Amino acid sequence: MTIHIGAGPGQIAETVLMPGDPYRARWAAETFLDDAVCINEVRGMLGYTGTWRGHRVTIQGSGMGMPSLSIYANELIRDYDAKTLIRIGSCGAMQGKVNIRDLILAMTATTLSTPSRGILRELNFAPCADFDLLHKAYQAAEARGTPTHVGGIYSSDVFYDERPDLNEQMVRHGILGVEMEAAELYILAARHKVRALAVLTVSDHLLTHEALPSEEREKSFGDMVEIALEAAFA
Ligand code: HPA
Q1: Considering only CA atoms, which residue is closest to atom 10 of ligand 1?
Q2: Is the C-beta atom of 159 inside 6 A of ligand 1?
Q3: Residue range 42-64: mean pLDDT, rounded
Q4: Could you give the CA distance from residue 214 to residue 218 in angstroms, rounded to a whole number?
Q5: Position 208 pLDDT exceeds 90
Q6: Collapsed DSSP state (helix, strand, coil) of residue 44
Q7: Given 3.40.50.1580, 3.40.1370.10, 3.30.420.240, 3.30.420.40, which CATH number is that of 15-233?
Q8: Per-residue model confidence as pLDDT tens digits over 158-167
Q9: What pLDDT is attached to residue 219?
């Protein structure tokens, strides 16, 4: 048990999928895993461990934003020996070529600040994905014909952003989409020598202001879960 995760020793797998929404963790575990057991309910941040095609996997909610993800990822890595962490989440598109429902595999995650800022201080560390996971996720996405973009994303601290100039710079510099967790996950993975990747579905578009209809969110989320599982175990 840790401060924020109630699982006992050995109850968490080496491979962990991390959706922001704890109810998504439950849905993914019930839909894709065999013998899923709830291993965390502390603060309602649900986590489940089961098997997928015989491989042990945990699906643990991260909450929204880097401070929340940082708590769960730190405890998963340091106390439960997680070795592969894959964020599965949504993002807002920042380029015209990226469409609603497309998949983004985050090669890098640009950020203004993360909970690691206190350690990195003036250093502009470049948070990047594990190449092997990225490569396998791309192959899995291609095999199912999912339109997929690979490149840089922006991990923001704010959903209700009041700095349009920053978004403009992101767009200008080719950033594919914006979300709120990946940069800290990548930094923690680098620090602790584990593997990380963020697999993201485009749920809204910052340029066209389109949004994914709610009835389609489940299907897109399901595709993403399967791509993440294939990347982890291919
Ligand atoms: N901004 C930040 N995070 C997001 C967005 C967004 O537009 N869409 C999905 N996650």
Answers
A1: 91
A2: yes
A3: 98
A4: 8
A5: yes
A6: helix
A7: 3.40.50.1580
A8: 999 999 999 9
A9: 83
